[in-house]
Design brief:
Layout lengths: L1 E2 L11 E7 L4 H11 L7 E7 L4 E7 L2 H4 L2 H4 L6 E7 L14 E5 L2 E11 L2 H10 L10 H9 L6 H11 L2 E8 L4 E5 L8 E5 L2 E5 L3 H6 L2 E5 L5 E5 L2 E5 L9 E2 L1 H6 L5 E2 L2 E2 H15 L6 E4 L5 H11 L7 E3 L6 E2 L9 H4 L2 E3 L1 H4 L3 E6 L6 H12 L4 E6 L21 H4 L3 H8 L3 E4 L2 H8 L6 E2 L1 H4 L24 E3 L1
Parallel strand pairs: 15-25, 18-22, 22-23, 23-24
Antiparallel strand pairs: 1-20, 2-5, 2-11, 3-4, 3-5, 6-7, 6-26, 7-8, 8-9, 9-13, 10-11, 10-12, 13-14, 16-17, 19-21
Length: 480
Amino acid sequence: MEHMERIDGKPREECGVFAVYGHSDAARVTYFGLFALQHRGQESAGIKVADGCRVWGHKGMGLVSEVFPEKTLVKLTGSLAIGHVRYSTTGSSVLSNAQPFLVHHGEEYYAIAHNGNLTNAQAVRRELETRGSIFQSTMDTEVIVHLMARHIEAGLESALTHALSRVEGAYSLVIMTRNRVIAARDPRGFRPLCLGRLGDGWVVASETCAFDLVGAQYLRDIRPGEILIIDEHGPRSLEPFPAVRQAHCIFELIYFSRPDSQIFGQNVYLCRKRLGREMAREYRPDVDFVMPFPDSGNYAALGYAEGSGIPFEMAMIRNHYVGRTFIQPTQTVRDFGVRVKLNPVRPLIAGRRVLIIEDSIIRGTTSRNRVRNLRDNGVREVHMAVSCPPTRHPCPYGIDFSAKGELLAAEMDETEEIARFIGLDSLHYLSVEGMVAATGMDPHGFCLACYTGDYPLTPPETFGKYCLETPDPVQLTLIP
């Protein structure tokens, strides 16, 4: 058996985080929370728990259900917990990089889980290493722990504030000690993070869909730049950083987040339908019906059909029982990676003109194979509309396209050239203006860098070195 390669050709985001304070079975609540966030990372999963005296836990490679069988979960007792699911955009996919990290320093334990990407992590790490810090992973998250350790004598709040003032980029963090849970979000608010209530306890998650599964009430988003500390007195907020222009990642609304989540104050499902209606205003080829490649394009396709009056059909059927592994077929089975997940309804598509609604085109190879599959099954014309502009610029904030060579629209400037490569009769990308209008939000509140090249923060290759104040070497004990 071999690991199945990702066959949808879609971008991936770094991870999801979850935390619980004040629940008698915090680890099990966290398990279900991570289960709801599994779409944000499938490489590794971890849970750390605390009972007021100690902090311990378990992590492993694979899906949440694989890493946490019942015999493992029942051993994780305590009323505090944090959890993490990971897809790597920095650091290799190995167990030492799985989160949450747990370290022992002084008389306290610190567990930390991170969603995002620190753009100056390498520069800060080099400075720390020259002053004696010893790193035990290749994850940018460990930089935060080392920065905290250098100022911990001033107290946890001061140490964390100092550490976060030194890093740049995208971070939504959950941190746990023996008796506290802390949530923090970068001042620009790149990635989502929200607060909920569960009985007499509190929960924090990357997305609200995790609250729905565990029966928690969504209260509000963690504000950009906020540090939220939850202890026996309940939550209290610190907002130590100057206000800056917000830069919510619009890709969260277009693709990453689950459609049943509330993100940046928006319902994702309804936002994606509005994206489809905006496309119908901009582009309306003469076709017989509208169709998505399930599941990512479903909601924009519904919106397009409603806005245009063109019928909607599920002309491709998804196999929902494809596991993470399968026995590889012989080479004579052409395009197996495409066909194993999606298969056309042949009588529906034969001789027809179809409009495919996609949420994004990144590398283009998967779309090309799927379009060829449609033509092989008798489709007369294939048109495509994409619910975002061409993705031309790499992302340094936690999406896995980090080089222009990975982006089809960066290699091919003209839409017609991209259409020819994929095998389309026509192709339309939603305009930047149409995309932002569909959100109903302030256009200045988004990061649009992957479309426009206008980065809210300078990409990491242009960063200078950072001078850290404390010269004493720090050795942390990283606990598996």
